[in-house]
Amino acid sequence: xxxxxxxxxxxxxxxxxxxxxxxxxxxxxxxxxxxxxxxxxxxxxxxxxxxxxxxxxxxxxxxxxxxxxxxxxxxxxxxxxxxxxxxxxxxxxxxxxxxxx
Length: 101
Description:
By secondary structure, this protein is mainly alpha-helical. Helices cover 33% and strands 4% of the residues.
């Protein structure tokens, strides 16, 4: 499924492939082709898990480019929230996401 949404005329790369659901990126012929998916929200624990599986020593990841901004939910109205829920329904279900959670 290709998303046909233009987010910005100045940034045409922010459409099509850039907007694919994550499950589309993790699948080959419809079957999930990975055995672990880390989350940015818990980057350190995901990195620790990968290190453990590879049997290498984990280390603390530095936090670089930290920003101070509003929580992502502040950037959505009802229309954009519904759009995201429709486009990424499979990802939301597969990864157990909920808006604001």
